Amino acid sequence: MTGKGEPRSGLSGRLSGPVRSVWAKHDRDTEGWLPLWCHMEDSGAVAGLLWDHWVPSNVQSLVAESLPGGDEDARRLAVWLAAVHDIGKATPAFACQVDQLADRMRGEGLEMPTQRQFGPDRKLASHGLAGQVLLGEWLEERHGWTRKQSGQFGVVPGGHHGVPPEHGQIKELDDRPHLLRTPGLSRPVWQRVQDELLDASADEYGVRERLGAWRAVKLPQPVQVLLTALVIMADWIASNPELFPYFPQEIHRTGQERVAAAWRGLSLPPPWRPVEPTGDVGELFASRFDLPPGAKVRPVQEAAVRLARSMAAPGLMVIEAPMGEGKTEAALAVAEIFAARSGAGGVFFALPTMATGNAMFPRLLDWLERLPAEGGTRLSVLLAHSKAALNDEYAGLMRESRQQITAVDADAETLEWRPGHEKRSAPAELVAHEWLRGRKKAMLSSFVAGTVDQLLFAGLKSRHLALRHLAVAGKVVVIDEAHAYDTYMSVYLDRVLSWLGAYRVPVVVLSATLPAARRRQLAEAYAGAGTAAGLGAGAAEFEAVAQADAYPLLTAVTTGQVPVMERPDASARGGDVHVERLDDDLGVLSDRLAAELDGGGCVLVVRNTVRRVLDTARVLRERFGDEQVTVAHSCFLDIDRAAKDADLLVRFGPPEKAGDRRPVKHIVVASQVAEQSLDVDFDLLVTDLCPVDLLLQRMGRLHRHQRGAEQENRPEGLRRARCLMTGVDWGTDVPTPVRGSVAVYGAYALLRSASVLLPHLEGARRPVRLPQDISPLVQGAYDDGPTGPQDWAEAMAKALERHERHRTDQAERADVFRLGDVQRPGRPLIGWIAAGAGDADDTRAGRAQVRDSKESLEVLVVQRRTDGSLATVPWLDKGRGGLELPLDRVPSPKAARAAAGCGLRLPIQFSYGEVMDRAITELEELYVPDWQAKDSPWLAGQLILALDADCQTRLAGFSLHYSQRDGLEVTSD
What we know:
Blueprint: E1 23-26, E2 33-35, H1 36-53, H2 57-65, H3 70-84, H4 92-95, H5 99-106, H6 115-118, H7 127-143, H8 147-158, H9 167-174, H10 187-204, H11 211-214, H12 221-238, H13 255-266, H14 281-288, H15 299-310, E3 316-320, H16 327-342, E4 347-351, H17 354-370, E5 378-384, H18 392-400, E6 429-431, E7 447-451, H19 453-456, H20 465-473, E8 476-479, H21 487-503, E9 507-511, H22 516-527, H23 539-547, E10 553-557, E11 564-566, E12 575-581, H24 586-596, E13 601-606, H25 610-624, E14 629-632, H26 638-652, H27 655-658, E15 665-670, E16 684-688, H28 692-699, E17 722-726, E18 728-729, E19 736-737, H29 739-745, H30 747-761, E20 768-770, H31 774-782, H32 793-815, H33 844-850, E21 858-864, E22 870-871, H34 893-900, E23 903-905, H35 913-923, E24 944-947, E25 952-955, E26 958-963, E27 967-972
Parallel strand pairs: 3-9, 4-7, 4-8, 5-6, 5-7, 8-9, 12-17, 13-15, 13-16, 14-15, 16-17, 21-24
Antiparallel strand pairs: 1-2, 3-10, 10-11, 12-20, 18-19, 21-22, 21-23, 25-26, 26-27
């Protein structure tokens, strides 16, 4: 890369002769190319810069602890492995692919067959696998290592394309040495070139003198994963021709100048480097959160901070506390302390749904804006789910952060992110960095709010899994609503926790209603109990975790330490909820609500299925009028669902936010969407029977906020919190839940819930005391012991049998693609993700891999006009309704984004085999070729559902009708 006559430096200066003809990169359009030595030099330099300026210190420390030379060895090893990762390209199996470059090498004595002459065998020597074999041979033959010793290092270049090789693949390549070196007179030339590259790299990166000491190293598997991920990142950056131009364009700069220009152009934000906050907990919360005037830190929040500060080292903290106790703020405060103490460089806040992720994102941004930071600091942020680009706040952040990824020379003008250079405490610049986008790189951003699927993918055997592990290994992980995950998802979550424990990633788990057995499982998974790498406490200590019955409860687990539990008081919030039965009859419900609302009031009716929501709303509208009834469920267009959630918050939110916009009389009929995240407050609750933990979540929407002394600002007859329980035939010997509820939750969970509620429904009908009764109810419902009257025993036993079969089936199916346990140190990652699931991403198929759900169909809903043309649906606001969607060209960006915002997940009827196939076939009849172009990212690859002028259509034997008021209604023909 230097001009003629100038001395060579770096790796280039150590090489001459045939080795300089070996190529690594080629552009078929421009015929540009890159020598292997140059790409090796670029990759090593990038790895060094990533290590120095991007890798969080907790990741650095984990790697350093496994090596005799500590920090220096860790950096040296990372840079060296990045430099040699493509050594497998110095083989005839790779080099033959571009004729003119292969001819150039042949002219230097490196003979090879043509690609056609090699035949299909050539594919058995992928350059990653070849690199692992070549590096292993060099370590074994030149430096006396055993194959077992070399394997744990060689697997890093072996897996740099996302999948570590398997033993069978290595054996097949061992049996075909001609793929690595051409037999005959050329063989020693190939051998010499390969040795020269590896020798020069060992000398250039200071590794040769360390190889003797490293022979005794047993690299932990988590370290092998992190090094692989770092090499992948370095390779991807060094392979970007905008940053690292190909020859002959790149000829007039030194290697150092080339790398410096690329790094300036990339401009990756550094990791978060917090200083541990000290002092009063009240001051900490006042400075980090937008608290209302006079607000005080709650006991749970204070205890969480105190426990985080007192732990021997950051580990797992499980926070169990009632709804509305400020668990989110407690988690963020603990995350800041954990990050400062551990060296973590960011936070991942995992939530159960896209809606909860969207709700959390602005709260995360607000917290970040309040964090102290040095002047000029930039922090990368991400909203992580498949529809994040439709979130206005995140889309705005992406627009503001847009940059061109290209090399910037040293004398080019550079932008200052903040005026001044002095260190000062100020909000950091929040950016959605251009390079940190896409399904494989996005999670590498420092701060992420998103669906729990993104975390569960770290337990799924899938391509480029190492990158996902690096993404979470450098963060504090917060898992919200931990009670919301079924057996299938929990199988993945427990495996992920075991790896997080091995990485020593601090984790905060939040739940209002966590069964005690599940608490123990989470703690044992993190501590690694029973695994090859496990260093956790013994069974007795974990039994104490399972037996703890206090509430609220904080549980802390640090690897190698006895679990610690704290039992803070609950705040003064809460109260009694009086529960009573209500017959499952819409006429009875209508009459009862008429009586209850005689003096006004706001009622929440929660149904377990969308069908029951719509049927209920139809009857109640006949009685109370259209304006008195609102519907909320999951079958609304994304854009309508967001607007509906916002409307509910405006009308039924906290008094200081809703003000005088709260209706005098109103009924909201909702599905399970009312259970999570919405800070809404009602005077009366009617709910279908459901698992007791979810029932308690629903009760959290009842008298959630104080409305005057003794609730005097509520209607007189509704000042006592009451919950009417329906969705059950109460007249039979054993309560019989409606079929839709059984289909959703199973009979066993519903019967257990009914059994623990009996003392509140019969006899003296003792009210449910919140929060005192939360833990007893949850533990009673999820305990293995018998419950309920004796005459329920037979029905309960049959339901339990079906429940156990279902759980076993879930666990077995989840285990198919689940990542294995962390193995003993020194065992190579060979075959780490064998028989995996391919690529894992946040698509409907990807989510179905980590959730026990049928693959659902998602469509974009548009309207077909009477003349046959297409347009966005007419009721969209901000000028987005009725925009033309031309069939002969790409729609305007505004129209395309508006259409993309009209995503709709079709209900379960369309998830069954033949129906789904028929639906897809019919939907694909509306295939618009011009919408599939690269400049149509909003619409390309999407299934389009066109409604007629009356918002109706037919699909796969069903009639569909959509309204902004009620969402999607489906009836069979």
